[in-house]
Design a protein that fits this description.
By secondary structure, the protein is of the alpha/beta class. It contains 14 helices and 10 strands.
């Protein structure tokens, strides 16, 4: 048990979950301090990742005038990569006392995944802030409404810059939280989702890297594949998506691949009707060690929004085995990130001059 967990147990606290997907800051690099977040976690969240947003929303006067956008859907102005986010996260983490640091796993996000120099940025952050970061992400390749707004080259799954990132993560021992939509928005496709096979190819090329596919590839309008193209009924879509995920989980080539079930937009698909709830619960029980819970809230003002995401999964957690629920809410996170902490610290001892 972690020091934070031991202290919590001693005080009789009963945590609800570990959070594998949490943004401390928003698209204009504003949000919470780490101290504020730890106070919010209190006895609700035992452990949590800690990352900002790697993209900065431009405030273009000629687009929105005096209205300052804070979210990418509030303006047509472009987004650009904001590398200083990693220094901000490190600063916040280092401002905490040791017992609070023990509850957090900072992640490196401030790089351009289309840039062959992205690995140099990640290495530089580790060298400047040894003892701080546990992993990489969340960063995105295909993301609804976002990818097309990012200035510069469009990120793709074919870019060797992405392979360099995954290779380096495997060398250092850093898990990667990776956002890639499984398909294009509003698709009416009757075959496999556009990016599914491309993702499988990427995953297969990096068997030594722990990869966490965020939101199982879904989004606001990137919906689960329909079971039948002729029905057009959204309540028939999730079972087909479950089958796609299970195909990855049952393939021994992908034993290094995990899925986070973060974001309320994902949860709404999982609990759409009793049949889907049963199918998702069965998948969780079949592969209990391959899913991590997360909230994916961006700088929330209080813990209520995080708990609301957690409660959306109640119908499914009521059906799974107790050991499965424990693994998804705590065990998988702590196994992955405790191991990452040890491996990354070992890499730093070998490569960072003190």
């Amino acid at each position: 048990m972690s020091p934070a967990g031991s202290a919590g147990a001693a005080r009789g606290e009963s945590y609800l979950f570990d959070d594998a997907h949490f943004h401390l800051t928003n698209y204009v690099q504003k949000g919470l301090t780490a101290r504020e977040y730890v106070r919010m976690m209190a006895s609700t969240v035992k452990r949590s990742t800690l990352f900002g947003i790697p993209l900065q929303q431009t405030w273009s006067y000629f687009n929105s005038g005096n209205v300052a956008p804070t979210y990418y859907l509030q303006t047509d102005a472009p987004l650009y990569y904001y590398s200083f986010t990693d220094a901000m996260i490190a600063h916040e983490y280092l401002s905490l006392p040791p017992q609070d640091r023990a509850r957090l796993d900072p992640m490196i996000t401030g790089f351009n995944p289309t840039d062959m120099y992205a690995v140099d940025h990640i290495r530089r952050v580790l060298e400047m802030y040894p003892g701080v970061f546990s992993g990489i992400g969340e960063f995105s390749i295909h993301k609804e409404f976002v990818s097309g707004k990012v200035a510069g080259d469009t990120a793709t799954l074919f870019n060797p810059a992405l392979d360099r990132i995954f290779d380096f993560a495997g060398e250092v021992g850093m898990p990667v939280i990776f956002h890639c939509d499984i398909d294009v928005p509003f698709t009416k496709r009757t075959g496999p989702p556009l990016f599914y096979d491309q993702m499988r190819d990427v995953l297969a090329r990096h068997p030594k890297t722990t990869i966490i596919w965020a939101h199982t590839g879904l989004g606001r309008v990137v919906m689960p594949m329909p079971a039948s193209a002729s029905t057009g009924q959204t309540d028939e879509r999730p079972p087909a998506h479950v089958e796609l995920i299970e195909n990855i989980l049952s393939d021994p080539r992908f034993n290094n691949v995990y899925f986070d079930i973060s974001w309320d937009e994902l949860a709404k698909y999982a609990v759409v009707n009793p049949d889907v709830i049963a199918r998702v619960a069965a998948m969780f029980d079949k592969f209990p060690d391959r899913f991590l819970f997360g909230t994916d809230n961006v700088a929330p003002p209080n813990i209520d929004a995080n708990v609301r995401v957690f409660r959306m999964w109640d119908p499914i957690f009521a059906k799974v085995r107790p050991a499965t629920k424990q693994a998804i809410l705590f065990g998988n996170y702590e196994r992955i990130f405790d191991g990452a902490r040890a491996r990354v610290r070992g890499w730093e001892r070998a490569h960072v001059q003190h």
